[in-house]
Amino acid sequence: MLKRISCDKPSFKTVEFKKGFNVILADKTLTSTDKDSRNGLGKSTLLKIIHFCLGSNVKPSSVFRSEHLNDWTFTLELNISGKDYKIHRNTANNSKIYLEGDFSEWIIKPEKDSSGKFVLSNANWRVVLGKLLFGLSPNEKKYKPSFRSMISYFIRKDAKAYTDSFKNSPQQKEWDIQVNNAYMLGLNWEYASEFQILKDNENSLKELKKAAKAGLLDGCIGTIGQLESEKLYLEDKITETENDLKNFKVHPKYGEIELNVNKNTEKIQDLLNNKILNSKMVIQYKENLEQEKDISTAYLEDIYNEAGLIFPDAVKLTIEEVLSFHENIILNRRKYLSGEIERLSNLISSQEEMIKSLSDEKSRYMEILSSHGALEEYTKINGLLMDDKQKLNDITQRINNLKRFESGISELKIKKEELRTKARLDFEERNSLKNQAVRLFNKFSKYLYQEPGTLSLDLSDTGYKFNIEIKRTDSQGVNYMKVFCYDLVLLQMRNSMVKPDFLVHDSTIFDGVDERQVAKALELASNVSEENNLQYICTMNSDVIPHEEFSGEFKKIFDGSIITRLTDATPEGGLLGIRF
């Protein structure tokens, strides 16, 4: 049980708890205005301080990071299994927990520091608290109950923690909900853990299948048979390429020879073009030579006689001179044409010899190129080989992934069925605990609403399923009362289980709840805590106390259970004694 909360700062209001029913009340004064907030008086801060002393993390946004609370040391006194302990934690040095009490049976014992005080790291303090308050032993399982998660059901510290009976925060993961609620209800939490492991395996198999399909072309299904066919093709292609590279000869002057081949090709082409041009010129010259004929005097006389003309002797002499001149011109032209024909014929013969010589040289070069290769070509082929080997490796990996997926799916189905069978048998064997929880919830909800609600604890293909129904309008107030009843179930369901004997609620749990249900809830909490030697603590605002709905006897009980009053009348009236 919680006994006392104090601080080393004189402004802080020490809170003394008692066994049974406890109320921390925030009073509204006549001098307060609409701008004054009783929620700033420290009701919620009180719950945060308890969590702080019980090993909570101190986030950057935490109130314990505020400059106004720098170097404050809070002390929580509590009794666990009949032994009293004091827990000290400083805001400036919050990684260390200073302790007072009997540590002889602790699984991790505090060590003395240089000042002689007993100290534990916050991480080890959580382990100790897990054992002391919940009977938790160190466990190597990935998914297991944790002290911090379970204590957050017994001390729900902010408004978001009251929205769902089975969650201590909106961000809580499904496996954490199952494992911790199963543990607190006396069910076998290890089955919840195993269901989550199978879920992880299933997700891994889905990733395997996704990896197996990665890189496939559109329209390619990528079955094992198709991939095996592609694999064989690549293996044959790789073998062929490796053989080509094995027989590949690299000539040291491959590039130079290749350049010479190109030059020879250009020269041969130029020679062929010139040869064709020269051959055409020879033909033209020969035709011109045929056309060059002598013209005799008799030939001219015959022409003129036929025309009826007779040349005089003087004219004949002149014509003979002209013909002689003409014959000289023709003779000279014939000599020129014959000379050109001979020159071009010789040039053509020379070009043919050069073409043959260059062609022979090119042929020799080509023989070398055909039997050898360039280093660049070798490198290129080798690069293509590496690409094919990578493709083969990828396809092999996809085939293996698909085989593992298909094998894993079959194995997963078997494991799921085996786990469901074992979990179902164990679930049935724990009927007494399950029924106890259901009956308690029925009892508590009926006390509030005259008609029992339903707490259903079941087992599905994915693990435990928890649900609560109360046949009332679906209002936030009813949801809060679901949480209230469930938390009382956890508090009272102790039996052989080690669990906290205290339950702490913030005033949030009564927001929007009908006054009659608030009154009954408070009476119920008082009865359960007093009759079962338990402790119930709640914070409330004075203006929402349903005095008119209390029974005459409970009015006295309620007033006598107010252990601390906070007020907004002065800045010192709050829990911390300061406002910021």
TrEMBL record:
UniProt xrefs under Gene3D superfamilies: P-loop containing nucleotide triphosphate hydrolases (3.40.50.300)
Segments forming domain DUF2326: 444-580
Source organism, top-level taxon: Archaea
InterPro entries with a match to the protein in the record: ABC-3C_CTD10, DUF2326, P-loop_NTPase
Residue stretches making up the ABC-three component systems C-terminal domain: 289-379
Protein name: Uncharacterized protein YydD (DUF2326 family)
Source species of the chain: Methanococcus maripaludis
